[in-house]
Specification:
Blueprint lengths: L1 E12 L2 E12 L3 E5 L6 H8 L7 E6 L11 E4 L11 H9 L27 H13 L5 E5 L7 H16 L3 E5 L3 H7 L2 E6 L2 E6 L1 H6 L5 E7 L5 H5 L4 E7 L2 E6 L3 H11 L4 E8 L2 H8 L9
Parallel strand pairs: 3-7, 3-8, 5-6, 6-7
Antiparallel strand pairs: 1-2, 1-4, 8-9, 10-12, 10-13, 11-12
The structure holds adenosine-5'-triphosphate.
Length: about 300
């Protein structure tokens, strides 16, 4: 069942079209990723889903209602979340807890226990980030919107945060995750919408996005005897053949390996130094967004 439905969403800032005809659904319990270069409209879209920004066009429903009517069911961690400099971590947690009938405390799990007395203004960027995640989850939301969840975290803290997100999902929370990190999307997301210039350029599972790239699989080998490459080119699974010295590199679709090895077996040719590579979500992203840098934050 869809817990979030976005239909034909449109938003301008003056002459600038930030979001244009964006539609998608998020199923209950899903981790839905939103990827795209800077300025592609990701934050504007999630702000509309959270009920924090009014769209010019289209509709958003969360749990079948307008987001503004179900605010307590939506937890939001946005890029710009700022707190007063002097507020202590413990004070922020109890203040936010007081807004909700059944608050949930994720602070220990997010590594904040040793920093409860620290003032917000003294926290490192990573700790501020973790506090903002704890505050987004404090109201036991049905839907959590996390914008650039792990930006500013070191690799270990990023992995720890991923484990927390997996726990949050196991607790039944649906998650919308805006990210610049392909590894994060690949690890966490069930489906990913790739935004480009205010529109969704592609929406699929991470592996589905990869398989859209032409020549997403590459087979490299050195044939035991000279091989007529036109035989390889004639295979329907093959999109390209090149040679580097003795090595032959064949690109093509998912079933490429079987097609190539069957041909070699028929010709009684042994494939030496056989290697198979798959393009990464990074490669797919670059192709789908026209080469914009993904991790330029
Ligand atoms: N309040 C605003 N006033 C004017 N223009 C805005 C405003 N907020 C965003 N924009 C513009 O709208 C476009 C989309 O911005 P948005 O923040 O939604 O993109 P984004 O994909 O989240 O980018 P980023 O990855 O940099 O956060 C950008 O061109 C941005 O400059």
């Amino acid at each position: 069942m869809a817990i979030i439905e976005v239909r034909d969403l449109g938003k301008r800032y003056g002459p600038k079209i930030a979001v244009d005809a964006v539609s998608f659904e998020v199923a209950e319990g899903e981790i839905f990723g939103i990827l795209g270069p800077n300025g592609a409209g990701k934050t504007t879209t999630v702000e509309c889903v959270a009920g924090l920004r009014k769209a010019d066009r289209g509709s958003v429903s969360v749990l079948g209602r307008a987001p503004a009517d179900v605010r307590s069911a939506i937890g939001v961690q946005l890029q710009s979340s700022e707190l007063p400099e002097r507020i202590r971590v413990s004070e922020a947690l109890s203040l936010f807890s007081s807004f909700y009938p059944t608050p949930a405390d994720w602070s220990a799990r997010l590594g904040l226990s040793a920093h409860l007395k620290a003032e917000f203004g003294q926290l490192s960027g990573g700790l501020k980030q973790r506090l903002s995640i704890a505050l987004a989850l404090i109201g036991s939301p049905r839907v959590a919107i996390l914008d650039e969840l792990t930006t500013g975290l070191d690799p270990q803290a990023r992995r720890d945060t991923w484990s927390v997100i997996e726990e949050v999902r196991s607790a039944g929370v649906t998650i919308v995750l805006v990210t610049h990190f392909m590894e994060e999307a690949e690890r966490l997301c069930d489906r990913v919408a790739v935004f480009r210039d205010g529109r969704i350029a592609a929406l699929d599972t991470p592996s589905g996005l990869v398989s859209r790239v032409d020549g997403s699989t590459r087979v490299r080998f050195v044939p035991s005897v000279a091989l007529d490459v036109t035989l390889l080119e004639a295979l329907p699974e093959v999109t390209g053949v090149s040679s580097v010295g003795e090595q032959i590199v064949v690109s093509g679709s998912e079933n490429l390996v079987h097609a190539v090895t069957s041909l070699l077996a028929r010709k009684q040719i042994v494939a030496r130094q056989l290697r198979v590579d798959q393009v990464s979500l990074d490669d797919a992203y670059v192709e789908l967004t026209g080469g914009s840098g993904a991790e330029d934050h």
